[in-house]
Specification:
There is one protein chain. This protein has 7 helices and 2 strands. Helix 4 crosses helix 5. The protein is elongated, with a radius of gyration of 35 Å. It has a domain at 29-136. The protein has helices spanning 25-50, 53-60, 64-70, 74-101, 122-132, 134-137, 155-164; strands at residues 103-109, 112-119. Helices cover 54% and strands 9% of the residues. The relative contact order is 0.05. Strand 1 (103-109) and strand 2 (112-119) form a beta hairpin. It has a two-stranded antiparallel sheet. By secondary structure, the protein is mainly alpha-helical.
């Protein structure tokens, strides 16, 4: 038998649809845990690259507070620390490249690029040296007395220090 549109009419009985089972609480929790694990892995991947919690959380579409809540878990905290160290290593590598290898900057003359010049960053080089060898390149030294204790002062030295700390109330010292 055909319908006005030329299609055959279905005469047999329809197959019964399969009833969907209602998921159990355990199944739902397993799904949430799997979704969280995937989000954490994506966050850690992004965090290793950029080193910024907010930017990484936005890339994964989770809140920054969620990331800090994840850090309560010991396993995630360990992975987070590792990713943080990787991000710092990447920053250090880039700082070293700019300080030692330099970067090419274009040179313009008359509004047109005529060449390139390599520029180095002395400030980055100084920071790298201070970080790698602070005992050699630090600017401040703390002195200590015997066995790490205070430096003993003579009576004259103590009086001099005391007089230097007395306010002069606007009077000039001689």
């Amino acid at each position: 038998m055909t319908t006005p549109r030329g299609r055959r009419r279905r005469t047999e009985a329809r197959r019964p649809t399969r009833a969907r089972a209602t998921p159990t609480v355990a199944t739902l929790e397993a799904r949430v845990q799997a979704r969280t694990a995937r989000a954490q892995a994506r966050f850690l991947r992004e965090f290793t690259i950029c080193g910024n919690v907010l930017r990484s959380a936005r890339a994964v579409k989770v809140g920054r507070r969620t990331v800090y809540d994840w850090r309560q878990d010991d396993a995630f905290r360990a992975l987070y620390s590792e990713a943080h160290l990787d991000a710092i290593d990447a920053l250090e590598e880039e700082a070293r490249r700019r300080a030692v290898d330099g970067v090419l900057e274009p040179v313009y003359q008359g509004g047109e690029q005529v060449g390139r010049i390599r520029k180095y960053s002395d400030a980055l080089l100084i920071l790298l040296l201070k970080g790698k060898r602070p005992e050699t390149f630090r600017e401040r030294y703390e002195l200590a007395g015997p066995r790490g204790g205070p430096i003993p002062l003579s009576h004259a030295g103590a009086v001099l220090l005391y007089t230097l700390h007395i306010p002069d109330n606007g009077r000039a010292r001689t």
